[in-house]
What does this fold into?
Amino acid sequence: MDSRYIALPKGVSETQFDKAIEEFRTILGKGNVLVEAEQLAPYTKIMMPVDESEHTPSAAITPASVEQIQAILAVCTRYKVPVWPISTGRNLGYGSAAPATRGQVVLDLKRMNRIIEVDADLCTALVEPGVTYRQMHDYLKENEIPLWLDPPGSSALAGILGNALDRGVGYTPYGDHFLFQCGMEVVLANGELLRTGMGSIPNSNTWQVFKWGYGPYLDGLFTQSNFGIVTKLGMWLLPQPPAFKPFVVRFNEEGDINKIVETLRPLRIAMVIPNAVVIAGALWEAGAFLKRSDYYEGPGAISDAAVRKIMKQHELGQWNLYAALYGTPEQIDVNWKIVHGAFTAAGGEVLTEEQVGDSPIFSYRRDLMRGDMNLQEFGLYNWRGGGGSIWFSPVSQSRGSETHKQMAMAKGILAEFGLDYVGEFIVGWRDMHHIIDLLYDRSDPEQMKNAYACYDKLLDVFAKEGYGTYRTNTAFMGKVAQAYGSAQQNINQRLKQALDPDGIIAPGKSGIFN
Ligand code: ADP
It folds into this structure.
């Protein structure tokens, strides 16, 4: 269809959309309403194995205040134009900045990027959506505030608020981001402004220190959802410890994941090891630094022999567990004896920073565990090349037999489609987030088809075994929602109808429509 827009919202005529765009221009100024294809390029690029046209936005708008968002939502309601809020739009591998369905207007909140407050005594912060990890990191350094952030793997460019809302994770003791979130400000579809928890009380100074407030706890409703637009987020920051001791434990066999997790679990639950640990598979570690074609050119998934060769050349284990101890030197000494003893008894090779020496692979992990910025994870995109990546993220019990079972299931299914097992287990006290990066070449139609079919099968087979995923990309949100059953889908839809009856906020997010 010929249109002056690269896409139109579903059910909205071009004339109606013209009017909405004119009103957006009045509210925001012309320069903050983008409709040209070149301007929209950053919002159309995806890494998923589907055609870009399925996720093409109709426009992108960049408000600078809560009042402007409220005025925009009134226009959206009038013309039935849906908006897809993003904060920094780096949700790579989960949909990037593009909307869940074609024709939504991207509501890009990057201009709302104030660090409103950092309280160095209480170790709390309040930020707007556009604040990046890099920005907060530099702010803490410049102001000599001895607090640590908890960046995710793809940290420096991504945003604090967007990551917490999508329930992303990091690697310090504050690795579960939503757990360490405290208080939100949300614009609802009808324009009402809600402050959750203690923020509802005029003149309250406890908004960022007490999560629960009074009555039903609401913050969770605004994560992985489309029930509101979050405009401020409170969070807790980690006081810089007097001492920090990062280490790696290497194990050489795939089946060792069983004893690694059995050894780790009690240490994590008792908080002897306090941080969000990573157990990275060999190809995850290698993939961030190496190119697949230098090691394997054959058909199908990379051979076990090629993986062994990489392990040998680059001093990697089949599994590489990264963890750290934090506290005073005396506390660390006591816990180090326990940790070293436990992993040595399990057959692991335990190495400290000094023993590893100058290794970029270790430095990357060490930096993340002390809240430093890093872009190394993007190296995974060069492993195969071609810009294709989707994360498959099932949740596992933190139990050796379970992690082993999941790894074997995933590796088998990936191999059926010629894809490599690039996986890691992260975070958990009692759970493990099992994260697998499906890497493929988007310019190769065969690989695109295989990646789609593989992800689909992974979801089916894992659901049949009782496993759900903690997060997914915008192409598969409906399917993942189905796995969680009809009662959960029904309540989400009823909440959506109550809070956003016209369906103007992010239709399709987490499979929820009005
Ligand atoms: P990041 O760049 O940190 O990875 P994004 O800005 O892409 O994060 O946000 C991740 C996801 O969270 C988005 O795709 C969107 O679904 C949701 N989201 C982001 N910001 C908001 C917001 N302010 N209000 C509601 N949902 C949001």
Remarks:
- Residues 445-464 form the longest helix (20 residues).
- The two ends are 27 Å apart (CA to CA).
